[in-house]
Amino acid sequence: MENPDSVVFLESFYEPMAANLARTRLEAADIPCFLSNENLVSLLPLYSPITGGVRLYVMRRDAEKALEILHHEPVPPSTEPDVASFAADAPDPVTPRCPRCGSSNVAWGPATRNTYGLWSGLLSVLLRYPVRGNRFHCFHCGNEFK
């Protein structure tokens, strides 16, 4: 006969941050749990696959409820873009389309390619650090545009 108060292994995570997020979700639902191998994987991340990652344990009586909580994907409250998350110098939050391929899979951020003008190129040489502006980057075709 299985003891409902025994501790059982629930899930393994290769990153300590993901394991701590899962632990926090369970503790928020009043399910007692704990992690093992967290310090080892934090200090030596290459050992994570060898040790089985950061392991999450719960009581046997809470295992089914914990799995349900961890594997439940919450529905996002809104499908509108979050205007507050855009940088102050970012353009309109409406998702633009790539002029080359028409994809909407684009993001605003620092340019990944050397897009130097005369002054930014000279300043980059003097500072020994690349000075790049922000541009849209298309993840479909790799095009960068303003």
Automatic annotation (TrEMBL):
It comes from the Bacteria. Residues 16-71 form the DUF2007 domain. Pfam families: DUF2007. InterPro entries: DUF2007, N-reg_PII-like_a/b. This is DUF2007 domain-containing protein.
